[in-house]
Amino acid sequence: MPVWPTLEQVGVCAASSSNEPDGTATVFWQSPSLLLVQIALQALKAVLTYGLAYIFGAQRLGKLLAAAVFLYPLWSPVGRAIKQNSAMRAYAYMALFVGTLTSVHLEPSKRYPDRVAIEIQDEDGHVLTTSIPGGQRMVSGLETGSQVCTVVMSDDESFARPAQISDLYFPFQNRFVGAYPYVNKNAIKRLQRKAEQGREP
Prior knowledge:
By secondary structure, this protein is of the alpha+beta class. The protein is 42% helix and 22% strand. Helix 1 crosses helix 4 (72-89) and helix 2 packs antiparallel against helix 3. The chain is elongated.
């Protein structure tokens, strides 16, 4: 788990809601038109903030608040990403879980119609279940029987009750899926290769 947020993690936290069936969203700095709109909006908010502070005779405070408002789209996602990473790193134990995708289907939910329920089972019969955004495109893009890797977190050394799991890595598709990119992609790829070598006779 990265200590400091990666650009990808900040981008996910900065992305607005999207109606795309695969759950993707466009970050404002990835589009020149969205970037200009965002700059204009934040500049207007900053001017209004400073104007209100000026009326009440708090020019210095107004400058600080205006700067914070103008830069909010940058520092706010960073803060949310740090919070996400810290929450996952708070668990006492972490382990790599390598299993097989045994079930994938849309969850019957009116509130979150794009959620996909996923079940993974390892060779010892341990089962993990999770749900991620993605909709029908995600369901049709994943095949049962595929190998899956994820990082399992728990405060219990035996992992009898996993508290949380990271995003999922499908090595044969070289694909990561999940609501948030928790893991260092290169690190989990190396761990997966080592796990495969350890199981070879």
